[in-house]
Amino acid sequence: MKIDRTPDVSQSFHPGDSINQYLLQKEPRAKVAVTHDSLWIDMLRIGLLDLADFSLEKRLQEVLMDNYRVIVEDGAVYLQKGALPGSSEHDLRVPQKTLSVDPPPSYEVRRTCTPNVLIVGETGVGKSSVINLIAGEKLADVSSSATGCTLEATTYDVVLTDRNGQGHHVRLFDTVGLKEPSLSKNDYLVAIEKANVLINQLLRTGGIRLIIFCIRGGRITSVTQSNYHLFRDILCHNQVPVAFVITGMENEQPMEGWWSRNAALFERSNLSCTSHACVTATPGLRNVYAKQYQASQITIRSMLLDHMSRTSWKPERAGWFIHLAGKLLKWVTKLKDRKRHLPGRSRALTVDELARHLEDKCNFTLEEAVGLAGKIWAKRTEHSETDLVKEGDDLDFH
Ligand SMILES: Nc1nc2c(ncn2[C@@H]2O[C@H](COP(=O)(O)OP(=O)(O)O)[C@@H](O)[C@H]2O)c(=O)[nH]1
Ligand SMILES: [Mg+2]
């Protein structure tokens, strides 16, 4: 679990205390309120709340009312997982915040207004370096080794200043992509767990404004294409603008020259974008690329600022999760078919196993998990044009 924001309070506090206070206010007849630590830890884990939310009374109340039942038994009051009767089936509701919460703490205002930008691409293409380039400081860990699970995201808040000196808050999601064009059963299960957290987080904070798809100047591989398909079509339903950021441009002069030579190759691979930037995302050893780095910072920041006046895309929660988990399921089946004859391959995923995983790891009730698993499973037999992940030859850039 990653906690990347701390609450705007100076005194010590315990999330369980905030929940107990709410329970005792709601049920004055109760003599004692009981909250197990696993309850609030799960709320953080699945992205229903940030740690700071536990000190925001109204915010906490909304999420508790929408997602838990209050039970009173023998003078004790406690919470039980499960939406209230009357709420829509399987829809673990995350309330939409408005700016009218009174008085709005600065943290809350900033969070709801801040556009979310997904930084995606294969491991090693320079996503974390691009985040540091945008921020102008070292926020994300840059590494030469592959880390993280597909759809796991870490957020970074940055402020960009426009030409008129006005500051714009942007939230960058450093999002792990696919490492291969297919998923193993276990990778799939972890990916949908991460997808659940990501979706909760994105819905809570206004949806998605822009996808920055990072590519290393080298070649378009089948993994590049699968990742493009995953983020643009499967996660964002082709409703979010995609900006390509090509890293590793330190030896190009001008860096933009690379794009003129290679734009046609993207078209041939059906990879389209609404804007692009050719950058050097590392200052290099002893700052040898300092000039290219500075120029890249100006280019990429202005590309982001261009999206500040646009709107974010925000779909309905349950449908979003079912679509994503269902489409990804097809990629697991592919791998299973391909490895049918390999010794020691793991047993194929079953719908019951999927339901158990949704209950255990994604915090759905048993009833919700069974319903969701059925709907996700049904997607396996639905076909659409965009289901095809092209696995042709890799295409080399010039
Ligand atoms: N030469 C060069 N190296 C880069 C560039 N961008 C990133 N790198 C290096 O590529 C490696 C992976 O970068 P990282 O940002 O961790 O990639 P991520 O896995 O996508 O987050 C690191 O060693 C970076 O220093 C670039 O524009 N040029
Ligand atoms: Mg990284």
What's this, in brief?
By secondary structure, this protein is an alpha/beta fold. The protein has helices spanning 15-26, 37-45, 57-67, 106-113, 127-135, 185-204, 222-235, 257-268, 290-305, 317-338, 351-361, 366-378, and strands spanning 32-34, 68-73, 76-81, 116-120, 153-161, 167-175, 210-216, 219-220, 242-247, 275-278, 395-396.
Task: Describe the protein in words.
The relative contact order is 0.12. The chain has three domains: 15-97, no CATH class; 114-313, P-loop containing nucleotide triphosphate hydrolases (Rossmann fold), CATH 3.40.50; 326-384, no CATH class. It is of the alpha/beta class. The chain has helices at 15-26, 37-45, 57-67, 106-113, 127-135, 185-204, 222-235, 257-268, 290-305, 317-338, 351-361, 366-378, and strands at residues 32-34, 68-73, 76-81, 116-120, 153-161, 167-175, 210-216, 219-220, 242-247, 275-278, 395-396. Helix 6 (185-204) runs antiparallel to helix 10. The chain is 39% helix and 15% strand. The strands form three sheets. The chain has a six-stranded mixed beta sheet with strand order 5-6-4-7-9-10, with helices on both faces. It has a three-stranded mixed beta sheet with strand order 1-3-2. The structure holds guanosine-5'-diphosphate and magnesium ion (MG). The site of magnesium ion (MG) has 3 residues, from helix 5.
